[in-house]
Amino acid sequence: MSPRDFTEQAALSGAWPCGSLRGTAEPPSGRWKIARGWGISHRDAFTAEFIQNDEKGPMHTHPPLPSIDTAPDTLLDGHLWIEELIDGLTFRFRMRESGLFEFGDTEREFDTDRVPLAYRHAVRAVRNQFDRDQFRRALDSVESVTFLAVAVGGGETPYDWARTPSVLGTDVWNGNTERYLPLDSSRQVFKQVGIEPVNTIDREVRGRDFDTRAYSVPISEWYDGPAFGVVLRDKTGNRAAIRPDKSLPATDQPTEVDEIATQLSERWLDQVIQDVSREDGEDTVERVVTRSVERLAREGRLPKHTGSAAESEFRAVVNDRVNRHLRGWFSVNGPW
Asked: By CB atoms within 10 Å of each CB, which of 178, 200, 244, 325 scores lowest?
C-alpha cells in the first residue's frame, strides 16, 4: 500500500488526522532508514488530539526515575512493565516544521553548533534515521511531540557497540494534552519513525506478586553480561529502577591524552573506516578522525576532560594515529 493510500484509509477509519501538511521544505540530505509500515493497531499512538492547538513551548523533559526503595507506594498496585535500564545519557529531541531537530539533555537544549561530544553520535543517528515524511503525514502539528530517549554509551557497561543502537526511545510526550502516550503506543511510534525503543523484558506482571528484593537482574539485550538494571513502570506513569549491587569490572579508560592512541587498534580503526565508507558524502581523513573521536566518547574511552580545548587535544592524538593507520590501509586497499 502506498503512503497516500494508507493515509486516506487511515483518515477514513478515524485512526489518523487528515489535514494539510505544513512545513513542506525538504529536510537536510542524508541517509534515510525507512521505517516499517504505519499500522493502525495502536490507534491512540497518534490521534486528533495532536492537532488541538499550535502552541510551541520548550521541549518536555524526562520524568524522575527513583530507586525502588523510594518508589511511589502505588507502583505495585497494578500491572507492571519491566524494561532494561540502559547505561547512557538522558536525551530528548523534537522535530520542527522545517524538518530540522532540536536536541537536549535533562537540563538544557543544545545549540545547533555546540552539541556536547558525548551526544554527537546520538544526534547523528536521529538525523539519519528519523522518518520525517511519515511523521509529517501522521500529524499536522509535529512540534507538539517530544521524544524522550537514552543516548547509549558514555558509561561503564561494555555494550556490543556494533549492534547496539545509538538511541533507545523511552517515552513520547504529547504537548497538546500534556501527557505521555501509553507504553505500547509509544513503542509503536518510535518504531514507526525509525528509532528503536528500549527493550521490554516482561509486561503485565502483577505488581502484588513481584518481589523487588528477590528479583535478579537479567542478562542485557546489548552485550553478554548483566543489564545495568531494570525499570518498573505502571500504566499511570509511576516508575522506579532496580540496579544490581555488583559493580562492573574496572575499565582501561585512559587518564591522560597521550594514552588515547592505545585505544585505537588496527581492527577498531578498520571498522570506523568501513562505517564512514557507508555514509553519504566524501570519504575523508577528517571524517574518519571525527567518527573515531565520537566513538571513543560513546565507548567511554576518553579521559574525563571537558571543553573545546580538551576535544582539540583528543583530535590531535587521534588524527596522528588515523593518518599512520591509513597509510598502511591505502597500501593494501588502494585509494578511496
From this structure: 178
